[in-house]
Design brief:
Largest sheet: 5 strands, antiparallel
Structural class: mainly beta
Shape: globular
Strand order of the largest sheet: 6-5-4-7-8
Radius of gyration: 16 Å
Helix content: under 10%
Length: about 130
Amino acid sequence: MAYMRSVPRVWRERKIKYQLLGGKCKDCGKSFYPYRQICPACGSTNVEQVKLPEKGVIEYFTIVRTPPTEFKEYAPYVLAIVKLEDGTKVLAQITDVEPNEVYDGMEVEAVFRKYREQGPNGIIEYGIKFRPVK
């Protein structure tokens, strides 16, 4: 059986997923995504929610050819570590490009796209993916 997310959880996460909101630690200065209340670098709880830059470059990537069941219809697809203009690193899917055209150092920008559908009558989840800068 495919993993199903609850409507309340998808609703609670929409702001962070739709607007590329991350965290910035007021103690060590580290920014991170997704937002959490504790800094993953230093453990401080002195964290603020910030709007992250929507442009960056691909640092590393992989092509997923054998995905989990719920993502089979999207294969093959590219997952990448995107380093945003402020240095924040985001794990994201790369869209609007053929997998064999992606390369390390490619300039990308955030776009709003469909993540997945939970079956024909299930929740449709949306969020941020990245595409090559045009």
